[in-house]
Each structure stands twice: as structure tokens, then as C-alpha cells.
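Researcher: I'm preparing a figure for a lab meeting and need a structural model of a single chain. I don't have an experimental structure, so a prediction will have to do for now. The sequence is pasted below. Please return the structure as C-alpha cells so I can convert it later.
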Amino acid sequence: MEKTTKTINPFNSKILLNYQYYNEIQVSECLNISKEIFTYWKNRTIEERVNFIKTLVFTLTKQQHLLAKKCTLEMGKPIKQSMAEVEKCGLLCQYYIDNAATFLSSKHIKTDASESFVTHEPLGVILGVMPWNFPYWQVFRFAIPAILAGNTVVVKHASNVSGCAQLIEDIFIEAGFPKGVYQNLMISSDQVESVINNPIIKAVSLTGSEKAGASVASAAAKQIKKAVLELGGSNAFIVCEDADLEKAIPIAVNARMQNTGQSCIAAKRFFVHQSLFKTFVNKFKEKVEALKMGDPMLEETEIGPLARIDLAEDVEKQVNRSVKMGAKIITGGKRKEAFYEPTILTDVTTDMPVFNEEVFGPAVPVMSFSTFEEAAALSNKTSFGLGVTIFTEDIEGIKSKIPLFEEGAVFINAMVKSDPALPFGGVKHSGYGRELAENGIKEFVNVKTIYIK
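Model: Understood. Here is the structure written out cell by cell.
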């Protein structure tokens, strides 16, 4: 009996479509197609590959509303944010259109040889294992640089966004890419290891949970295959004594509540200097309570449902367990089906779930600190290390304290975000390897040394 999955609209719990997972024969056919086209694709010039990406940007723009609507239907992202996600994919493509040739050019190095240089050659077929929270952006930031480097890719997407997954392959085909350069691999999670074990797959990139990352990394390591892992985060948002609250609070709201709090780089733990604590909490509460929750298909909606009911239940449990341990809810705290109210908690201690676990939803603890070193220690008191935001007017003073933070990124007076021009990734349990920028396009290449005497 063939295994199936279904997509469900989290706003109204209606079944959207049923999908059938590929069997072993279908998986083998997909991988063979990607392997065969790789021979052709790797021999295209970078200029030829760039031209395909230019057409993809046109197609992406043309299909923007279709893509955004599917995203909102399948995982509940407010429609304006879905539109913005598709637009960001286009910006990423343009960044690599402008820079890929330079990044991948041969690098001549002076040695005792007559000539010595380094080239960057593609590895082959790369597997991407992608999450549901940004169903287009996460895929594009993996696939575009990998494809421009001359690789072909197959993507196992999250099952609850299977429609989004198929649309991505559709737009690659519509843009004229040869069949097999990009393929949607409709498989279940328990089929991933066998795909990694297939000799056709040369490397794997995963964006997802700690558990999924450990599983994929282990399978790849057994086969001596490279893996890039973009995992969870529990980012701190630090408001220093000299911070401008008028600037900090709107960004604090967006940093926590964007995508209904379902982001690895969301600000998940707020640390506010004790002199500003009461003022910050009151103003933050006012802004959070003003957020409009409702039908994600409506333009005015800012907070939609979480992607699944069980995810909302998980947030509810983390908050309720923390309240039992002494935390105080000052706004929110109620769940209805997949909806969970934006929630702020105070009187939080470091042993509570809302502090020491990743909360993947619109709930945030706010704690006070007296010294910057105390705030840095609280920020580091987590198994994750993705990013941190610091609000201060003393830019030069903070620059000297950046080494205090065990993070992949430090953002000063701005929320942590991914930018095509900047390397993205974390340390500790947030994973390893980097996406985006020059670092990202070189993750899946053979850096080949040539020495001529």
C-alpha cells in the first residue's frame, strides 16, 4: 500500500489535498535524472546558468500571488508576509546573478610554482531537507547558490507544505530549466536516510529541528558526506540602559511576532535593563495587544494560526508549565485550535521552559538585568547560538563586547535577519556551515588546488 500525506489549512482545519509519497522506484528514477543532467549542467558556463536564474526571477514575479496564496493556505502565514517572502526569493536570485561569477572565479595564488590557482567545481546531486515555516525562502537560499555552482538538487520538503513544494519545481520548469536540475522529492521523513545513503547524493543541507539535524548529520557522516545544518535558535533581544525605546519596541514586536513567532531567528528571550524594564513592558504590551489576529488571507491580518494545531498545543504547554513554576502572563496565554494569542511573560527564571527551550510561536519571556555582562551571560545560557540583537546608543562600546556572545550573528539596533549578502548560520546546537553570501555558494563545491612547476 502506497503511503500518503495530506495538507490541511490551519485556519479552518479543512483538508486541502492528498499527496502520495514516492516509492523506491520513483525515488531512484528522480535521483538518476538528476545525476544524468548534472553532466550537462556542470559544463554550462556561469553566464549560461545565470541566464536561467534571470528567467526564474521573471517567472517568480509572474506567479507571486499563486505562490503566496498556497503558502498562506498550507501553513497560515499572513498573506502580506507570504508575498514578502516570495519577493525576498527574487532579491536573493538577483544577488547571485550579480555576484556568482566573481565568487566562483579561479583564484590565483603566488607560491614557488610557475603557476598555482584554485578552482571551484560542483560536487554533484545535493539533497535539501527543508522546513515549512518559510517554504520558499528556505529552499531558495539553499538551491539557488548550489545550482549556480553547477550542482543539481533534489528537495525533500515538509509534508504540510507539499503544494508549495510542487509549485517550486513547477516554476523551475516554467523558467526553462532542464528537467532534473531542480526536483521536488515527495518522500516521508523515514525515507530520508536511504536517500542520503544513495551514492548519487554527494552532500545534504538541512534546515529544521535539532532532532532532524542530528539524524541527518549522523546519516551523512556514516557515508562521509558533507552536511550543512541550519537548526533552531533561542535568540536574545537585549535592551541596554541607553537604548531608544521608540526605535526598539516596534522592532521587538516584529522580531518576536513575525510569521506568528515561527522562525528560528526570532527574538525569543528579552532582557531589558532594570531602569527601563517597567516602561518597556508596558509599551511592548500595548503594541502586542494591538496586533490584528485572524484570517491570514486578509491583508490586515498580522497574526495568523500556527502551522498546525499540535504546534499551538506545544506553545501552550511550554507557557503553562512556566506559569506553574511562577511565571506571570501579562497578556495573551489562550489557545483556540491552531491560534495562540501573542503572549508576554514576566517573573521568569532560567529553569522555565519559556527560557531554556525553543518556543516556536508567539510567546516571549521578558527579564531584567543590571549589568551588560549579566545580559551577555543570560544570552549565552542556552544550547543554541544563532543570533542576538542589542539595542544601545553606545555603538563603539558594544563593538568591543561582541566577542562575549556565542552566536553566529550579532545585530545592533536591528532584528536578526537573513540577508543574501551576509553569511547565515549558527554555532552550538544551532548547527554548522553557512548559507548565503560567498560562503553559501562555496559550501557545495570542490575547492580544487592546481600547482604547475
